[in-house]
Amino acid sequence: MVHNLPDGRYGFAHLDVDVYNPLLESLQFFGQRLAVGGVLVLDDYGVRKCPGVRKAAETFTAERFPAWHPFTEQLLLVKVR
User: Fold this and answer.
1) Ranges of residues in the chain whose predicted pLDDT is under 50
2) Residues ≥6 apart with Cβ < 8 Å to 60
3) N or C end of the chain: smaller count of CB under 10 Å?
4) Does 48 reside within a domain?
5) 32 within a domain of the structure (yes/no)
6) Strand partners, 78
7) Based on the structure, what is the number of domains in the chain?
8) Which among 34, 4, 9 is positioned nearest to 60, based on CA atoms?
């Protein structure tokens, strides 16, 4: 899935993946490559028919990413270190 993308630094990524395992893999890929101050946007966060999104976000965000939930169906993650 994400294996064909350039192995450089990213400043922004919008992820619209509704299933836990592929989303977690995408978060790990971009999380390692995201520049400090970079933003990840997760679509369908909190949507009942997509429970894998919330679960993957909670699994991933424990250390490096404070989460900002703007009370929409998206979650914004900002890399701080």
Assistant:
1) none
2) 24, 27, 28, 31, 77
3) C
4) yes
5) yes
6) 39
7) 1
8) 34
